[in-house]
């Protein structure tokens, strides 16, 4: 019989764990809420949240006025916050990703060219780009 050893570091990174904990806490509270996009890259967690009454929506306009919107750990472009002005927002952006948003926003405002390496279709890259001019 083979032995299976689980790595000490298996599981979610700090930012994702923080986001998932917030999402499940909100789901258990019974608040009418949705996540903006799939909350994390884990279909089982996304499905579990949906079963608990917190389904994903594809865009801010799919959230009903007054409905709580959870921002996923990847973050979102700055303009998305403006589009959600009629909704309570629970921002679950990873603190490390939010720091990158602040850095690129400041550099962009100073007129510096910001180069972003990554898949342009990935939500985290789209969020970072959305904080530049």
Q: What would you say about this model in short?
A:
With 133 residues, the protein is of the alpha/beta class. The chain is 40% helix and 10% strand.
Q: What does this protein look like?
A:
The longest helix is centred in the N-terminal third of the chain and has 16 residues, at 14-29. This protein has a 4-stranded parallel β-sheet, with helices on one face. Helix 3 (78-83) links the parallel strand 3 (68-71) and strand 4. It has helices at residues 14-29, 43-51, 78-83, 95-109, 123-129, and strands at 33-36, 56-57, 68-71, 89-91. The chain contains 5 helices and 4 strands; from the N terminus they run H-E-H-E-E-H-E-H-H.
Keywords:
133 residues; single chain; flat; 4-stranded parallel β-sheet
How are the SSEs ordered, and which strands pair?
Layout: H1 14-29, E1 33-36, H2 43-51, E2 56-57, E3 68-71, H3 78-83, E4 89-91, H4 95-109, H5 123-129
Parallel strand pairs: 1-2, 1-3, 3-4
Helix pairs in contact: 4-5
**Total number of helical segments?**
5
Query: Distance between termini?
Result: 58 Å
Mean model confidence by pLDDT: 92
The outline comes out as flat
Measured by DSSP, the beta-strand proportion falls in: 5-15%
């Amino acid at each position: 019989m083979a032995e299976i050893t689980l790595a000490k570091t298996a599981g979610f990174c700090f930012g994702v764990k923080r986001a998932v904990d917030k999402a499940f806490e909100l789901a258990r509270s019974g608040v009418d809420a949705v996540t903006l996009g799939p909350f994390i890259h884990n279909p089982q967690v996304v499905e579990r949240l949906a079963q608990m009454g917190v389904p994903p929506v594809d865009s801010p306009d799919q959230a009903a006025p007054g409905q709580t919107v959870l921002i996923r750990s990847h973050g979102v472009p700055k303009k998305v916050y403006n589009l959600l002005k009629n909704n309570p927002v629970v921002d679950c952006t990873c603190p490390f990703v939010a720091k990158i948003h602040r850095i690129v926003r400041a550099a962009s405002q100073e007129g510096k060219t910001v180069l972003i390496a990554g898949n342009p279709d990935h939500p985290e890259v789209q969020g970072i780009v959305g904080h530049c001019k």
